[in-house]
Design goal:
With about 120 residues, the protein is of the alpha+beta class. Helix content is about 30%, strand content about 30%. The protein is globular and about 45 Å long.
Length: about 120
């Protein structure tokens, strides 16, 4: 069974800060070039519009990290593969990052880790 950490509340707070002028949109639209490349070429489409620019649908980029992964550690995977890897390898985490390929918005969306039942 996978335990989930959802970062929606953190995202809402950050977007509220952008809307009220407490945080500049340039501070949140700052995706690293490697994350942008992964989003464009490997990321999976989502049904959600970018919450900053609303110009395009967000792309989901999935990374898996764990001590037992060796050369697979930190690579980008399709979401279903990343979830399976996290479920099959205790202590491994699957991270899902949402990315806008237009304005470079990026935010950690969810994290998953195997949990004993």
């Amino acid at each position: 069974m996978l335990a989930t950490v959802d970062y929606t509340l953190a995202k809402r707070a950050l977007l509220n800060d952008v809307r009220t002028g407490m945080t500049s949109w340039t501070d949140v639209c700052d995706a690293h070039p490697e994350l942008m490349r992964a989003a464009k070429h490997v990321g999976e489409s989502s049904r959600r519009d970018c919450p900053v620019c609303s110009k395009t649908k967000l792309r989901l980029v999935t990374y898996v990290y764990g001590d037992g992964l060796r050369e697979e550690n930190g690579r980008v995977w399709p979401l279903d593969v990343g979830l399976s890897m996290a479920a099959d390898r205790p202590g491994s985490w699957c991270y899902v990052v949402e990315v806008c390929v237009e304005c470079q918005w990026n935010h950690l969306s969810e994290a998953f880790v195997a949990r004993a039942v």
